[in-house]
Amino acid sequence: MGRVLVILTAAAAVVACSVATVMVRRRIKRRRKWRKVVGLLKELEESFETPLGRLRQMVDAIAVEMQAGLVSEGGSKLKMLLTFVDDLPNGSERGTYYALHLGGSYFRIIRVHLGGQRSSLEVQDIERHSIPTSLLNSTSEVLFDFLASSLQRFIEKEGHESISSQDVKRELAFTFSFPVKQTSLSSGVLIKWTKGFAISEMAGEDIAECLQGAVDRRGLDIHVAALVNDTVGALSYGHYHDPDTIAAVVFGTGSNACYLERTDAIIKCQNPRTTSGSMVVNMEWGNFWSSRLPRTSYDIELDAESLNSNDMGFEKMIGGMYLGDIVRRIILRMSQESDIFGPISSILSTPFVLRTNSVSAMHEDDTPELHEVATILKHLGVPKVPLKVRKLVVKICDVVTRRAARLAAAGISGILKKLGRDGSVGEGRRRSSDKQMMRRTVVAVEGGLYSNYRMFREYMDEALRDILGEDVARQVVIKAMEDGSSIGSALLLASSHSVRTISNI
Ligand code: BGC
Question: What is the reported pTM?
Answer without folding.
Answer: 0.91
